[in-house]
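Need a sequence for this fold. Nothing fancy.
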């Protein structure tokens, strides 16, 4: 059976579930390819030893989730699996782009191909999770969505053809025959023939050598799936799905938890979900929560929420309780959201119809918050005060920009939710759909063994009367319940889990704190009390005065006390959260950057025109806490107290260099200027710190280098003399010499002179190649390449050129069928340029070599994600080498 026949067979099935099952089966057969050359170099030799477990787990989890998705037919469970797919895909991107991955061709091909199979399989399975029929019980399919499953099948076949000396055509035929006969489970429960006994043996041996759950849980999973052992759909989700709190644990800890859930899927659960209400001040968040509790709501009578308020709500027809988190909407509190927003919560974003801020701008601001901190969490949009002013949203555009995230838009009037009429009806619709969303989240509860749950209950009881728990008491409690200190999931693991859940807060860096914070509300309310004190500069004594003179009461009505022996913990925690810093020359004196004046000082004593400038442009929103965190990290180098909410002036203590950092929230741009003899070294340090802060969030942003001799400012027409940083790196990788754009020609070495040799090696290392033209064209050897040109392809006279033309055309066709990324767009541009050159009556072979060299470099980056293009690239490379 050739590929065309296979494609037709899969299309004839007209069932993405079956296609996904076929892809999952093929992915299972592909896993042993990870043992390539293991007999000579050791198992997973192509990764650093410290990273092997992490990356292998990402691939195995993706394969497992793709397999399980084909089993689960419940709408809620299927959607839960689809949510976990995103986590696995994100991890797989890290696998493929791992800096430590060797450039050895066989290893790169094997790892990228297996990761591609696993990723595409779960995408294929995920197709079936988004289209319930009107009954709400059966999943229906779009027959045009077979492409993901088919892609996974082809890549799996390609792996087997390249890396396994065995023909699998008859196996494919058997698989198809089973699918044609009946349900997908017939195939999944069919024993699989081992394609390569050698690789299979090395893969099994490798899992055993790794230990830490790979030798038990994952070995059993792999062998059971090969044997076709049936799975139990009723308990499968409880056995394989993990709550987001586990994501921070080590592979060994995750494997131990998976094994525990597999052996006992009916473990105790926390039975709570978090609903986070976001919106600007006076949007009506507190009013909506009062309405959900069937309490009276009177306009202009609700007090402004100072920080955060939490209430517990029984979810109808479910075993869970919802914790409603009502965040204060004042801008100065937005920087603290990073500590409380998390994935797999439900978000309710309220829009104030009467504010001066455009409703679409409001909703995008908060949606970007959720995107940055909340993973793939769902968002319900509420337009409050609709009795006074209509809220108009461009829902079509919002759904395009934030696919699979928005539940719906609800125009409400919280003050009239009990009045008979449309406002009561709209509120009931919102409440019903809120309950449906919360019921669907019940599947993702954190599970505990009986001993762990006993400890949890004891700690929750203690937290009512005590804000702290000694480390000795925690150890004693674990010992009493039989929690070990040496197991893969041990006392420290449980502590990390409790910390992630907010049961206990652990500050290992605060050395003088010998206890754990047992009541997180004590910490949360303390931090917000200081922030809402609106004092940017304060001493420890002043902080203590604020905390003791104001009555601090938590959401359960308990008064929180901040004694002389404990209040300092609030300040130390704020330092660790990078919300404040201690003045270097004045111990016990603190500065909270978000409370500093917003006005820029008149004289910054810095010449921006002659300094090197680097920009971060944010597509969605510029996080408020970026500047504050940066200021805290650099506070030892602040010059003459030149620091304000949106910027800071610095002078290096280690290098002969100075810097200026400023945020433009309106333009969503964060800029860094550096000057001095050691500009290169100082910029490298500051750049790394910015990237560390940004790595904590999921953000879309681009990086820009201002060109030499530019004025470093936007001119009167809005033009900026700058180039995309990643595009410059790609040009350097392709051995380009000139950067040519509308502003002129620039030697690439001059444009990139701000990079240290170490930074250049770091940016160019690994296998990930990101190409961004940054608004200009690429230039190699003095000739421009990368411009967007479209020509009709004509038949070349020379037979060798004709062969090259066919290969280029075939590659371009393949590239046009894959997802558009920076890499694919750059590869397509190079391919089109090469096609144009080879069509000429007398092609310039020097130019053709230069162009195809760039094409091959870019296309190989694409091949890491889509290995199916690799054979074409190799043929092009072989042909062009002859010329």
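Here you go.
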């Amino acid at each position: 059976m050739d590929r065309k026949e296979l494609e037709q067979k899969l299309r004839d099935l007209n069932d993405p579930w079956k296609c996904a099952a076929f892809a999952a089966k093929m992915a299972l057969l592909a896993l042993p390819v990870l043992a390539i050359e293991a007999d000579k170099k050791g198992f997973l030799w192509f990764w650093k030893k410290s990273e092997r477990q992490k990356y292998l787990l990402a691939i195995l989890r993706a394969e497992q989730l793709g397999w399980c998705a084909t089993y689960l037919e419940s709408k809620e469970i299927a959607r839960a699996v689809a949510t976990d797919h995103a986590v696995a895909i994100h991890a797989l991107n890290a696998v493929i782009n791992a800096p430590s991955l060797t450039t050895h061709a066989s290893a790169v091909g094997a790892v990228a191909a297996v990761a591609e199979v696993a990723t595409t399989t779960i995408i294929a399975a995920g197709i079936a999770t988004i289209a319930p029929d009107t009954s709400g019980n059966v999943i229906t399919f779009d027959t045009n969505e077979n492409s993901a499953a088919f892609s996974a099948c082809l890549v799996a076949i390609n792996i087997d053809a390249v890396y396994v000396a065995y023909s699998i055509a008859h196996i494919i035929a058997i698989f198809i025959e089973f699918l044609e006969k009946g349900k997908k489970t017939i195939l999944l429960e069919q024993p699989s023939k081992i394609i390569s006994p050698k690789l299979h043996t090395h893969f099994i041996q490798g899992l055993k050598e790794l230990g830490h759950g790979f030798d038990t849980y994952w070995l059993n999973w792999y062998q059971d799936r090969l044997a076709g052992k049936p799975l139990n759909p009723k308990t499968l989700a409880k056995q394989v799905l993990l709550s987001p709190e586990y994501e921070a644990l080590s592979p060994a800890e995750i494997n131990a938890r998976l094994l525990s859930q597999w052996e006992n899927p009916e473990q105790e659960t926390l039975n709570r979900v978090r609903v986070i209400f976001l919106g600007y001040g006076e949007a009506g968040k507190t009013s909506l929560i009062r309405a959900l509790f069937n309490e009276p709501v009177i306009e202009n009578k609700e007090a402004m929420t100072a920080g955060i308020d939490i209430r517990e709500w029984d979810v109808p027809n479910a075993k869970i309780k919802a914790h409603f988190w009502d965040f204060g909407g004042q801008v100065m509190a937005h920087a603290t959201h990073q500590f409380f927003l998390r994935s797999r919560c439900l978000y309710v974003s309220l829009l104030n119809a009467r504010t001066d801020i455009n409703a679409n701008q409001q909703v995008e601001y908060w949606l970007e918050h959720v995107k940055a901190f909340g993973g793939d969490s769902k968002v319900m949009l509420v337009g409050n005060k609709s009795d006074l002013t209509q809220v108009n949203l461009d829902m079509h555009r919002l759904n395009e920009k934030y696919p699979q995230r928005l539940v719906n838009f609800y125009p409400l009037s919280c003050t009239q939710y009990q009045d008979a009429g449309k406002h009561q009806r709209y509120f009931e619709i919102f409440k019903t759909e809120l309950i449906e969303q919360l019921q669907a989240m019940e599947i993702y509860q954190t599970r505990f063994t009986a001993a762990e749950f006993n400890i949890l209950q004891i700690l929750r009881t203690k937290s009512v009367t005590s804000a702290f728990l000694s480390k000795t008491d925690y150890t004693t409690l674990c010992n009493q319940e039989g929690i070990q200190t040496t197991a893969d999931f041990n006392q420290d693991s449980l502590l990390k889990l409790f910390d992630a859940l907010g049961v206990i807060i652990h500050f290992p860096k605060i050395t003088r704190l010998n206890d754990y914070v047992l009541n997180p509300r004590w910490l949360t309310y303390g931090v917000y009390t200081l922030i809402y004190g609106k004092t940017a500069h304060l001493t420890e004594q002043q902080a203590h005065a604020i905390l003791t003179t104001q009555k601090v009461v938590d959401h359960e009505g308990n008064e929180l006390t901040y004694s002389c022996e404990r209040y300092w913990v609030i300040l130390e925690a704020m330092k660790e959260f990078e919300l404040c810093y201690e003045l270097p020359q004045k111990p016990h004196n603190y500065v909270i950057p978000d409370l500093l004046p917003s006005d820029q000082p008149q004289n910054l004593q810095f010449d921006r025109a002659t300094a090197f400038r680097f920009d971060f442009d944010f597509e969605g929103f510029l996080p408020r806490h970026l500047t504050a965190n940066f200021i805290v990290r650099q506070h030892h180098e602040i010059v003459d107290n030149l620091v304000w909410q949106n910027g800071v002036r610095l002078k290096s203590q280690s290098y002969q260099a100075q810097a200026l950092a400023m945020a433009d929230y309106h333009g969503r741009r964060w800029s860094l200027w550096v000057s001095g003899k050691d500009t290169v070294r100082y910029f490298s340090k500051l750049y790394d710190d910015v990237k560390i802060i940004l790595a904590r969030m999921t953000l879309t942003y681009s990086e820009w280098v201002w060109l030499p001799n530019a004025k470093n400012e936007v001119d009167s027409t809005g033009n900026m003399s700058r180039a995309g940083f990643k595009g410059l790196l790609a040009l350097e990788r392709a051995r380009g010499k000139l950067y040519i754009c509308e502003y002129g020609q620039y030697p690439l070495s001059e444009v990139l002179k701000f990079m240290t040799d170490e930074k250049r090696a770091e940016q160019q290392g690994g296998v990930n190649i990101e190409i961004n033209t940054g608004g200009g064209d690429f230039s190699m050897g003095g000739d421009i390449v990368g411009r967007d040109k479209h020509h009709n392809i004509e038949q070349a006279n020379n037979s060798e050129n004709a062969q090259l033309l066919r290969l280029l055309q075939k590659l371009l066709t393949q590239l046009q069928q894959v997802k558009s990324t920076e890499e694919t767009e750059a590869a397509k541009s190079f391919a089109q340029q090469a096609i144009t050159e080879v069509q000429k009556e007398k092609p310039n072979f020097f130019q053709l070599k230069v162009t195809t060299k760039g094409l091959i470099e870019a296309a190989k980056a694409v091949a890491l994600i889509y290995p199916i293009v690799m054979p074409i690239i190799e043929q092009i490379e072989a042909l062009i080498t002859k010329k």
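For context: Confidence is low (pLDDT under 50) at residues 127-146, 160-166, 765-798.
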